[in-house]
Amino acid sequence: MQASDAAITSLRYAGAHHVKEIKESVLQRRIRHVISENNRVEAACSAVIHSDWSTLGRIFSLSHESLQGDYEVSCEEMDFLAAHAELLPGVFGARMMGGGFGGCTINLARAGEGPAIAASVTAAYEDKYEQKPVAHIIGPGLEARCSYD
Asked: So what's the architecture of 3-129 in CATH?
């Protein structure tokens, strides 16, 4: 970033136009992920507030793509789980979550579809990797909310 951007003390305050100023490709991808993920979080809050599950699902998917391509913390198994889930009826979107390089995925799905989605995803994973994953079906808690500072 340029000296004129000295007021930017955190990537939270940077914009997409700042990414183009970074010359080193790996750093550029990492910064693009952080900036775009911050934008996705704000868009996700809006989607939750408006109960727009289709938009929230697209945000999940875009987040996974960014974690995979720009931040490079996904792995084959997480990519498989997210991609398989997104092909299923009732799934709005899927992404990996946690620290990266393995772990778990979260799938945003239509209410009542959880058991069928879990059965399909676990069977497909077991067929491909010869390990049976554990699926947890959860719903939103009473404390789920978005806040802005």
From this structure: 2-Layer Sandwich (3.30)
